[in-house]
Amino acid sequence: MASSTGEAPESKGTHQYQPRDFKVVGTTPLRPDGVDKVTGRARFGADMNLPGQLVGKVLRSPHPHAKLVSIDTSEAEALPGVKAVVTRDDFAENEAHHDILCNIMARDKVLYEGHAVAAVAATSRAIALKALKKIKVVYDILPHVTDVDEAMKADAPILHDDMFTHGVDPMPTTASNIAGRCEFGHGDVDAGFEQADIIIERNFKTAATHQGYIEPHACVATVTSDDYGELWGCTQGHFVLRNVSASLVGMDVSKLRVTASEIGGGFGGKTTVFLEPVCLMLAKKSGKPVKMAMTRDEVFKASGPTASSSMDVKIGCTKDGRITAGFAEVRYQGGAFRGAPADFGAMCAFACYALENVKAIGWEVVTNRPKGAAYRAPGAPMSVYAVESVVDELAKAIDMDPIDFRLKNAARNGDKSSYGPKFESLGLVETLEAAKNHPNYQIPLGPNQGRGVASGFWFNFGGETCSTLNVNQDGTVAISVGTPDIGGSRASMCQMAAEELGIPYDQVRAIVTDTSSLGFNDTTEGSRVTFSSGMAVIFAAREIIGKLCERAAMMWDIPVEAVKWEEGKAIPAGANAGDFEPLTLAEIADAAGGTGGPIAGHHEYNADGAGVSFGTHLVDTEVDPETGFVKILRYTVIQDAGKAIHPSYVEGQFQGGAVQGIGWALNEEYIYGDDGKLQNAGFLDYRLPVASDLPMIDTVIVEVPNPGHPYGVRGVGETGIVPPLAAIANSVSDAANLRMTELPMSPPRILKAIHQAEAAE
Amino acid sequence: MVQVVLSGIMKTAVDDQAEIEIEAKNIKQLLDALARDYPKMEPYVKKGLAVSINGVIYRDSLYQKIPEDAEIFVIPRLAGG
Amino acid sequence: MGIHVSTKINGDDVEFVCDAEETLLDVLRDRLNLTGAKEGCATGDCGACSVTIDGRLTCSCLTLGAEVEGREIGTVEGVAKGNELHPIQQKILDNAALQCGVCTPGIVVAAKALLEKKPDPSEEEIRYWMAGNLCRCTGYDKIIRAIQDAAAEMRG
Ligand code: FES
Ligand code: FES
Predict the structure, then answer these.
(1) Do C24 and C63 belong together in one domain?
(2) What is the 3-state secondary structure (H, E, C) of C43-62?
(3) Closest residue in chain B to residue A166, using alpha carbons only
(4) CA A729, CA A451: separation in Å to the nearest integer?
(5) CATH number of the structural domain spanning residue C127
(6) pLDDT digits (tens, 9 = 90+) for C100-125
(7) At B29, which helix (H) or strand (E)?
(8) What residue ranges in A673-756 does DSSP mark as E strands?
């Protein structure tokens, strides 16, 4: 490492992993933003105020589907205190971001209840709300559709008359709500089913759920008369937000500076753009700063949800437990625009298994619901729920332990994945073995109690990333990253820099910089931050080490090749070994003014080689036969993290993902009436899991190093939400002798299933 | 020549062939050739794709070299939560 | 028509003028610049806005600003004594019992109110007391442990 220049190895994606003894990585120091967060000082999206700011509010459609005939804003504009009103007329067509444009401000049609129609900026919230009431909108109401299967029918109301199904050859010439079809797999499933001794085929349905971040979307914007803009708000990706917003508002990217506030949860739901361009447009028109924040009702109606699904799964196996063929067809609706993650659903469905014959078909469908957004491992939890439920049933049918059944069919190194590429290095088998050996797998169960197992997968990826490290005169180090910290990633950045530089953790501080201070960074999504920004930090630190060695060589007047870096110090080596006292980073930093000025390291790259991530969950439940209520007795998450930089925050990701999955499995659901309106747009009726619903969530961190990262890191954020749906369904099935094929498994649904089963007997 | 497997929505765009052969030394050449030889591929290439070379998925690295006998899959561009 | 209100916040006398329909949460955040309490729902369902009024745990989004005349309000900003963190704050940090941290101010206020009432709560009591505070990130495990640790430390 002595002469390291910070260059990434040539083949970035592979084989950079080098085993080493870690000093800081793997420990659990306090996070740098912690004190601000426990004292209320941390500033989130809605906590920023600018002098003289106005309040912006959005008028939203009460109809799920209608032509927007006319919008008359004259009375609203005349109201004292109203400083600007914007509608579709203020936004020019935009080819690159057409769907986002249509979503942030409806154009010729409203496509869902809650679709933005106009916005007002006024001197107070009360005036802004009053002004919204004075806007006269004429709608021509159209028939609507919110269910995925209904939306696919030939006679369904059509949302977009220019939507022709992709992926079907020849492409249809009539418009439909089917945006696309995709297919993955290999082998011959028909031949595979012929070889099976037993085949199980089922249909499943899952409801749409919301990411449920506690902080609603919020931002503050200001635009000067010469068109320079500043925006401050909560987002998972301020660079992407800047690019899209600037484009929609018609500004140069360089004239818009976006600062990411602290972010109160995202889970994919804040990779989006909703209020920001509207806020900028209001600021531009009014000439004053404008602040906007969604209400919870707006968050439910106009942001985020994940896809709802309808799925068919058929799997066959031999009597001794070898899967001979797997087939899945998944239909996802992702709201009013393209983007339902049916492709990821189809790709992930069978990813846990090494199969000779596998086929997964995905259908991407639009309906009159809010534009869906990514939610942790987008698309995977539903299809994996369906597949893992059938796998469980097969294991039961041949009387085999469900973990043994999975081990027998599990994907291993070198196996061809169900979505195509060969797996290079994966830890699925390790998680299954750890599950089998876990004490929670041996605890005896009581009456009405059951045990469920399921595994799950997410790809993980890297993306465009850069980070800068600056050495301060006192020897401390400042890290600038461009990826918002959503779950403690600043702490892991500091750990990795400290590890490389050989200095204590508390000598390093990380901040998330604004868009003018670093080059473009992709969004915080897909479990990429600790992997990508972390690797950039590591390479930037190596660049700094090179420079520190140069400075030491200068100070000692020896060749730089004769200097090595060890434990935070430059040490004379080779022929000069022992000639000089080692120089600490602080000493070199202190002398930097005379040896060539400030010392900084930077790394920019496309991070590739993110290792795949697998997990296995164990859950025990008790089903109350009188009420249908499911109580979670024990829950265990076992997941491969590659290398856990900060194990507490890795556990936190496991636990948080599992509990979101528990909510999805048992309670959470977007409920639509026949009128196409959302009936439960609040936390009272859309029920997130609360503390009293849950036990402690046990975790096991498996570490199978990712060959594509110097420390072996794999992203850990996504996979945790993939197995719970199936694990809980399997546990409930074990407890109540039922196969629940529809989520959520709310008490009325379970009761109904119990009664049906009784009636059938 | 490298052997390329397209999956998902793109398979129909290459006339339902399981595998196609393409002359390409890096990812950009591969994608350009796909768009050129199979016009139906163009919208997908424009929208953004990911390419797996010997099991490692590349999302953005257009000039990543493709070794002679590599196993290549073209898959949808990943996004996440 | 503004309503004049005199109150005490975190031990200090505070006077403010607010509209009749303004909630205490709006007053704290928009008029007094005490943005520690968050608005997660404005309907009393998430606990992010938790404060105490005369020692009682309350959702400030369900209380009108005008109602706190003559009362004593405690917010998250008053929990630490100067630079010295309250045990619940320290234990939340030590246990990594926060991810995004937006629920944390409410959790701190609610947990402190619990421990003042009940120095030795069982896990179940903690879970039911905290059931009004939503956290979407952590799955509550580490939060419950932090409260248990803080309780143990405060009992000495
Ligand atoms: S904001 Fe008061 S309970 Fe949610
Ligand atoms: S830490 Fe994010 S909501 Fe609790």
Answers:
(1) yes
(2) CCCCCCCEEEECCEEEEHHH
(3) B9
(4) 10
(5) 1.10.150.120
(6) 999 999 999 999 999 999 999 999 99
(7) helix B27-37
(8) 697-702
User: What's the pLDDT at B8?
Assistant: 66
| C-alpha closest to that of A534 among A452, A607, A446, A613 | A607
How many Å lie between the centroid of ligand 2 and the Cα of residue C100?
A: 5
Q: Print the domain residue range for C103.
A: 87-155
pLDDT above 60 (res A575): yes
* pLDDT value at residue A4: 35
Locus of tokens 């190895």: A9
Euclidean distance between CA atoms A101 and A304, whole angstroms:
16
Residue B52: φ, ψ to 5°: -100, 120
Model pLDDT for residues A340-391, shown as the tens digit of each residue: 999 999 999 999 999 999 999 999 999 999 999 999 999 999 999 999 999 9
Q: Which domains, from first to last, does chain A contain?
A: 3-30+462-607 (3.30.365.10), 46-142+217-293 (3.90.1170.50), 308-460+611-760 (3.30.365.10)
> Which of the ligands is closest to the CA of residue C50?
1
pLDDT at site B17: 80
Show which of residues 284-313 on chain A sit within 8 Å of chain C, judged by CB atoms.
Answer: 293, 295-296
* A558: closest CA of chain B, how far (Å): 39
Residues lining ligand 2, Cβ inside 6 A? A 214, 265; C 98-103, 135-138
**Tokens at A431, concatenated:** 């998680």
The secondary structure of A474-534 as a DSSP string is TS-EEEEESS--SSSHHHHHHHHHHHHHT--GGGEEEEE--TTTS-----S-TT-IIIIIH
Q: How many CB atoms lie within 10 A of CB A27?
A: 15
Residue type for A316, please?
Answer: G
- Whether A646 and chain C come into contact, CB under 8 Å, resolves to yes
Alpha carbons within 13 angstroms on the beta-carbon side of residue A676 total: 28
Check: CB of residue A293 under 8 Å from CB of residue A216. yes
Which of B19, B40, B46, B57 to mutate against chain A (most A CBs within 10 Å)? B57
Cβ contact C134:A682 at 8 Å = no
The CATH number of residue C39's host domain is 3.10.20.30
Q: Are C3 and C67 in contact (CB under 8 A)?
A: no
- Residue A15 clears pLDDT 60, i.e. is over it: no
**Reported confidence tier of residue A456, pLDDT bands at 50, 70, 90:** very high
pLDDT of residue B11: 77
pLDDT digits (tens, 9 = 90+) for A77-87: 999 999 999 99
- Mark whether C121 and C64 lie in a shared domain: no
Contact A375 B81 (CB under 8 A): yes
What is the layout of strands, in order, in the sheet containing A198-206? A178-186, A358-365, A323-333, A308-317, A198-206
pLDDT band for position A524 (50/70/90)?
Answer: confident
Residue given tokens 């993290």 in the structure block: A641
Q: Which residue of A has its CA nearest to C145?
A: A696
Q: Which residue has the tokens 């246990």?
A: C95
Query: Is A34 touching C (CB cutoff 8 A)?
Result: yes
**Is residue A722's pLDDT more than 60?**
yes
Containing A406, the helix (H) or strand (E) segment is helix A402-409
Q: What is the pLDDT of residue B18?
A: 73
Dihedral, CA of residue A366, residue A368, residue A371 and residue A372, to nearest 10: -70
C-alpha A396 – ligand 2 centre gap (Å)? 38
| Nearest Cα to Cα of residue A58 among A279, A269, A245, A213 | A279
Task: Give the pLDDT band (50/70/90) at residue A12.
Answer: very low
Best residue of C35, C136, C138, C143 to probe chain A, by most A CBs closer than 10 Å? C136
Confidence of residue B28 (pLDDT cuts 50, 70, 90): very high
Q: Is A29 on the interface with C (CB under 8 A)?
A: no
Residue A432: how many other CB atoms lie within 10 Å:
24
